[in-house]
Fold this protein.
Amino acid sequence: MRVKSLDKKWKELLFSFSGFGPNFLMVLMGAFFTDAINPAAIGNEFQAIMKGTCFILPAVFPILNAIGKVFDGVIDIPFAYVTDSLSTKWGRRRPTILICFLPMVISFALCWFPVAGHAGSSAQLINTIWIFAWSIVFFATYTMCLITFYGSLSTTCCDEAQRTRVSGLKSFFDTISYCIVYALVPVILEGLHIHIDTFVFCALPIMLTMLIPLFLIKEGAKYGYPENDGLRPEKISIWQSLKLTFGNKPYLRWICVNSCTFFGMQMFLVSMNALVTGGMGMNGFDMAILNTCAFAPVPICLYLFQKLKARKGIRFAYQTCLLAFAIGILNFFFGSTFITGGNRTIQYIIGCAGGVLASWSIGSFFMMPYLVPAQISSVEEKLTGKNHSAMYFAADAVATSVVGAISGSLVYELIKNYFFCTGAPTVEGVGKVIQAVDYDAAAAAFGVAKTQVVNISTIIVPFLVCLVCLVGFGLAFLMPKDYTPRLVARELKKFDPSLDITEFEKMEMPKPEKGEILYIQIALSVLSGFIFGFIWAGYLFRSFKELWKHKKPGLGWALSCFIPFVGIYYLIKAMNEMKSVAGSTKLTGSKALYIVFGLLFPLLPLNVVALSVMQHDVNKVYATQHAAEEISKVEDAVVAND
């Protein structure tokens, strides 16, 4: 009898959390790394290792980075075969994680540590080679750890219900990774005045989560290896494994659709900082507001996605996600300063609406890449006795690495250094496209203000993402309606008529455990909504202290976060005190607004509306005070000259 590795719900939660550390830092790398070493398209100094400093050769690094991403995908194939076929007294999954862990951590850290400084092209060349070399080591070891973890899903989980639970839990931890990276990190960088490389080095210990499977996966001499005695899968060659994987038509159809999804997601994620700080002219706090709208609804969206999937099938449900993401991302173009002229209110409305719409897609985009391959490989093992589950994840990784290299590392990196001018027709250079290291350099070259310069990537990227999502929507019609064990078995029998699928034909549709989805939903809410809200509220209360010397902002923050309805009192008090320093500045917030939404959202971290309005008013007061200070400086200078 098979010994269950995940025989308790808390073990499912802990196992799903295993890849959080490496995935979080990989997401962080995808979001900030290329802009950190070449901050041409971003408008935030803390998201760069050094403001206005390019550490690499802009013409060479994108090509090498794309090669590295392709290598990351190609290396998955032999690595997947190793972890699928390995047989040791410690098992087949655990040794590879243990061997690759330290090289993964060290190589990641060294990627963020340019050794040659930044002066001159020779230093840029050395840094380019240095970063490329260590990124290859990181991609290889990261791949081995994660492909081993993913490959264990089909056997560690005992049935479809458990695979669905673990995939759902895994998706919510992925959601948390993106929530922290895109919503909180910009706020943390600006609030603490630290650069991105400092944050990265502080976050390195979270890589330790990758060691969790060493204690949960039951394999090795104690339990029988590579699986339990009598359940050892048939050993197959790498060529046979490849043939089975790439000959699996239901899986290939999924790969085509997922590649379109990943192309769009990767291009959007690597350019998000540029779209918000450059294209929309917003700061880290504004970015946090937009990302709250995108991530806070994920729990209920994931719940509704499961309901829609059960009623209409995976294909239909996933197609709605592709459409929602395509439309949501276009809002970054319509909310850009190029369209809105920098009207912050209109930008908030457009950006928040796009975020809420895109949130319908986020949870499913994270869950499906785990659920579909694990489901297919599990059914295949039961029908054929051949377990090569890691190869399915490897094949998916090859496809996504190639499209990711093209979209995020090649296309985006090659277009982000180009700018055009939106100044008056009499300004020389209007209508021309020039190459520059950042917005300041482009503005100087055109002879206009920085606000009249537009980075070309902020215009092109939303439309490219929308286009590939629509292509994925069309390709999804080739997928099976669903990927239940019965339908997967039927699809496999079409490829191999000799398979006996009688057992699967008798299967009934599994009924989710009562409260199971609600459990995931609550966990997601706590981790994505609450944690973000705590930090946002903390920075907002710190702003109160700076504006009107509030004596105990920490106490107000704590009481508002943890005691229902207390936030109403502190918001109204803050509004009244803000009026005393606002002067002629008209505030958006009102007593009625804070009372109504304070009653609807008893805990301040969930009160996104009140937080947004209060943050907007704080920003206005700051802007007014800053303008007054500038006028005062000019007047003082005039008096001094006289």
Remarks:
- The chain is about 70% helix and 0% strand.
